[in-house]
Design goal:
The chain contains 16 helices and 7 strands. By secondary structure, the protein is α+β, with helices and mostly antiparallel strands. The strands form 2 sheets. Strands 2-3-1-6-7 form a 5-stranded mixed sheet. It has a two-stranded antiparallel sheet with strand order 4-5. The longest helix is centred in the middle third of the chain and has 44 residues. The two termini are 39 Å apart. The relative contact order is 0.08. The structure holds guanosine-5'-triphosphate (GTP). The site of guanosine-5'-triphosphate (GTP) has 16 residues, from strand 1, helix 13 and helix 14. This is Diguanylate cyclase DosC. Its EC number is 2.7.7.65. Keywords: Heme, Iron, Magnesium, Metal-binding, Nucleotide-binding, Transferase.
Length: 460
Amino acid sequence: MPHLSLEYLTAEWLSLNNRFEPQTRQFALSFFQEHASTLAEQFYIAMLGDAEASKYLSNDDVQRRLGASMQRWLSNLFSSEDEASVTKLIAEQRKVGEVHARIDIPLHLVLRGARCLKNSFSTLSTSGFPDQENQRVDAIRLVSETIDVAMEIMGQAYAISHDRNSRAEEAYRLFAITQNIANEKDQQRAAVLHWENQFMFEQAVGKSGSALPRIQASDFGLWFRHKGIHAFEGSVEATTILDAMETIDDVIVPLFGSDMEQIDRQSERVALLHDLRDKVKSILFHLDSLFDQNNELESGRDVLTRLLNRKFLPVVLNKQIDQARKQKTSFAVVALDLDYFKQVNDTYGHQAGDSVLQQLALILVNKSRSGDYLFRMGGEEFLLIAVDMDKTNIQRLMEKLRESVASEPFRLPEGNTINITISAGAACFDGHPDYQRLLRKADDALYEAKNAGRNRVVIA
Ligand SMILES: Nc1nc2c(ncn2[C@@H]2O[C@H](COP(=O)(O)OP(=O)(O)OP(=O)(O)O)[C@@H](O)[C@H]2O)c(=O)[nH]1
């Protein structure tokens, strides 16, 4: 999509400004400064009335900052006069459009917000020019046209980013299941059977309902709910597998529960086990079919470590945010970085450094769960997205990773071994829709861990 050039937009915005008297612009400016909190409040009430819009505004942090950011945005719109500040203003509108696309706010909601602001201005400004109706009409036109120009620029940046995200999302859907498809299929089949075995054993030794393992929380369950479901999105088989898992966990397993005495007649117990086995068979059958349909897809990974590269990070994070919101769960983002890695390269050579990176990737894969995501962000920086994770568990997981790395002798190509440590910083999803914030918090926590002496973990 071609961009309207910056020069063209700047000239248009300046000519819009010049069509109005300086005191009209001044009026708009002081009006917005004076009424910022009332406007934010009205805006908030109007948007919360819309179920779709409210989910983008319900986060406490968004709510707290809304008034201030709206005031800043409006003040800038009416205080920028010369060419340099208008150019800066245009860049700001583009950035806002990109943020909206990143957090996937539908464009019509942004336009609705703008309409709400224009409407509030024309209603509230009646007292500003009691005797001069013409000036009030002028001010309304200025405010309306300025907000429209801002929306136009935001909208264009939004569309460009959104197109890019959609393409990445589609590519990711194809990519997600294609990392060695035969392997993945075998691994996930084995994970289903492992859960079934575990369940059979535990119920045979007399464990009751709540203590019995649930398939949705098993390795397979996590993998399917977080990765498989995106890869196979829209297919009937995927829905059938999700339904089968739900029936197992919510209907069949509880019958093995504290009411076991009531189903202690052998025949009822056997019938229940048959039901369970049928559901597991159905999961395996549909899983095979999903893999078979998708076995010709391409893959794309970091060449050195075979971890994900950062290309799909935005898609994965947006999907996790969406899922966490819908299912009221949380997840964590962990930034990991090797300590003093430069010394390894300087002392033992680049090839030795490469081998350390590969061994580290292997440890991270082995110590995380198959539903988690591991990225190599570049150089010696890694990122883990730990699904279904809260603050207590992430602390435990990070310590486990840190200790595993510290205690592992890393083999170098020459045959000798060295010890390496990592530092890590984590942030848990707190309901805020913008994943960049989460990445920033994890990075800040990592920075803190480095500053505190390295070989340690910090949670934001
Ligand atoms: N062998 C190898 N080295 C890499 C690769 N990518 C980045 N590096 C090296 O990683 C090193 C990173 O150094 P720094 O950023 O100073 O970090 P550090 O030495 O680990 O120090 P701290 O992170 O502060 O503990 C540099 O020497 C890079 O050349 C790679 O793919 N292979």
